[in-house]
TrEMBL record:
One of its GO terms (biological process) is cell division. It comes from Lysobacter defluvii IMMIB APB-9 = DSM 18482. This is Cell division ATP-binding protein FtsE. It comes from the Bacteria. The gene is ftsE. The lineage of its organism: Bacteria, Pseudomonadati, Pseudomonadota, Gammaproteobacteria, Lysobacterales. The keyword Transcription regulation does not apply. GO terms for molecular function: ATP binding; ATP hydrolysis activity; transmembrane transporter activity. Belongs to the ABC transporter superfamily. GO terms for cellular component: plasma membrane. It is a peripheral membrane protein. The keyword Electron transport does not apply. Gene3D superfamilies: P-loop containing nucleotide triphosphate hydrolases (3.40.50.300). Its main location: membrane.
Amino acid sequence: MPVLRFDNVSKQYPGGQQALSDVGFQVDAGEMLFVTGHSGAGKSTLLKLIHLAERPSRGAVLFDDRNLLRVRGRQVALHRRRVGVVFQDHRLLADRTVAENVGLPLLLQGLRRGEIAKRVRAVLDRVSLGTRATALPAQLSAGEQQRVGIARAIVSEPALLVADEPTGNLDPTLAAEIMALFESLPERGTSVLVASHDLALVKRMRKRVLVLDKGRLVDDIQPEDLAE
Ligand SMILES: Nc1ncnc2c1ncn2[C@@H]1O[C@H](COP(=O)(O)OP(=O)(O)OP(=O)(O)O)[C@@H](O)[C@H]1O
């Protein structure tokens, strides 16, 4: 069952910039894959169309078989519960604790405090931050801050996690830790799509790789076809 499908998707930004041209692919439930390409290839744009930060100019993005063009107004917030997003700069609230940052999506959903506390504790344990719940973001290392961002993205148990250069600021050891965390998500029902220009890291992971070049999907490499 595909969780995500791009059907001939093009995106042209106002001002004429063609960021994606006729892109088509699908992601199955429980899959983890990468999208790679040079700077400006269209990776961020592709992810933005999935979490509805942007809309396609042509073609359709389907999520759970539903055309996202039909997702409007209040339904956008509901859609975003099903798609977790991780950014390179993690975008944590500086004046809120780790637990408050992670619990924020659940608070916005109207869950009760007791339920939020329970879920936040469980997800912080999963990202090995169980002892840092009351810390402020500035008191954490870069790798820990990124793990808080991931905890916040998965606390709603999304069907898909999209991550834009999630290890861009991290050294190789921390990057490997983050990737191991991502790899554990599909078995819990969350598919994972990671945008990265770091080819060495992408190759090491031995997952399916979508390759963008100037907005075109030029390759869709299966793990078994990745060169040694
Ligand atoms: N809001 C915008 N308005 C106009 N053009 C944009 C906008 N966002 C991106 N672009 C352009 O669209 C193209 C694709 O950009 P995008 O950010 O998707 O690429 P990318 O592969 O993520 O690059 P990077 O690795 O540098 O983040 C680029 O030419 C970029 O300049």
